[in-house]
């Protein structure tokens, strides 16, 4: 039994935080309009036995609050950021706080409070190191006649207490492990407070507690493994993962295991590496993957070493106390002159020297050139699903595609016709039970839902459910489900991954889907169940297996953090810096580095890059980027806009003659995301006789221009997260 030390002292203000979660009716999966969340309230009670309470509510997304005081007094309304005062008699009360968002959506919380003028008694304190978070300490305190408590965690330079409601837990993360004096002060409405203090040893977690995420299932032709104990990727067992390269006294390595998962551990890392049992020809691969964990703030480097061309290093930017995954484009190394055809070794360097890293899942990989799912149906007569059935929904698996466009050229699709069935869906039973392990957990569909077909107010969504058909009409009792929102009036690809997406088990006691072996039935449902609303949907290209091809050459992605696939950025009359410190870090863009675009008055200023091979706009038609243009950087009267132009670089200085262009307006002084879609957006062909961009195969150059051309006005822009995608 701990001995509690009671110390009575004077204090002026009592503070209480009330935490809650948002209403269960959160519809954020429908659109971006949500009810206020993380509703809190600050209660300040003057400690002079008057019962004067100051109430300061707060919430994310709230503009005002309705507060029912709980003592019969009239409710009060408080604006966001403001406070209200009320005098309570000694007693117990339930205070209700209704947070109201700008759209009228609401979230409500209730809190029982006690106004007492007795000093807190029977203070009991629990102090524990967090089991999963390094150097985090959790404190819980209970006491009679107390409303809240403050914890002084005793770290030098930080005298600010952390407050929490009595009976709830407060947490604090120390900079360093060690022994600290932790002091807890319990407070009620009386002048006196009650204290407890304890010397406590704060510990650091120095090794991962869980394995890195298992690699996805890949065909053997699409991967060359170096080391991966959790994947189905076989690697050369003669690889030496701990060779002695004259590291001297700093040489400290060893194998580490989590369960049956073997992991490489490099301790006191100056340099260490892997000596391959046989040279690897990775020239046909596209990426190098690895997962790295560190307990410290240190980083590291990895260098593939070629027999013919030496070594080139890639900086591994690590996050302490978690696995960091890397998929490094091999073009990063080949652009530096490294041959990928004769890789004999890998080297790891500490940055700075001396730290410890854990490494797992090292392999080369490429996107599958011929993705073959395990179960599929394209509704063109190609597939292995023979048991499609409608359950309360009409079903036609050979329906003429009513919306043929570049997003779906198929002639026939599946028609889903819910005429008001309460539990309408379409379904099929596989020939054998699903094995969702090893990355074989992914289902994809294309879907088009015309808005004109919908009645009622159900959310626009698609549910994919897995069940055990062996229970017949009771198969629904075994259900696990993933729900995805949908956009109306467009073809889109939806992916349901039972290995990584949030899922709902109807029976909460059921295990994780990837650990189950009883599932063999697929149920697809549009716009939810238990209603009589109507909806039509058109479904195509059902696939089950591993993660399907999500991208195809050419690749054009750049977050300007040193990991992009674009290596040919160039300025043409505009200054260009692809590693510029983000001057406007905020909620809309937290990236530390961005591309700086600086037009100092060049008549045709722009930035540009080329790709290999040429763009196939039927496969991928969209270019997306983030942009920030400060109004203070602009001169002249040009319209605030951004142009994305595609050209044929083969014409050299005359490539502009082949140009097709999309222009979008921009808003100043804010980060915004803009998408240029050469299938659905309005485009301008410089040569009026050129075909639609989607029908061209000569385009390989991207030109980005801010605020127009043929002028000498100035503008600075910051660009981030460029992506070419489907």
From TrEMBL:
Q: Which InterPro entries match?
A: Galactose-bd-like_sf, Ig-like_fold, PKD/Chitinase_dom
- SUPFAM superfamilies tied to this protein: Galactose-binding domain-like (SSF49785)
**Ranges for domain PKD/Chitinase:** 40-118, 122-200
Q: Which residues form the signal peptide?
A: 1-21
Q: Which UniProt keywords apply?
A: Signal
Q: Which domain of life is it from?
A: Bacteria
Q: Tell me yes or no: is Signal among this UniProt entry's keywords.
A: yes
Protein name (database record): PKD/Chitinase domain-containing protein
- Source organism per entry reads Mariniflexile soesokkakense
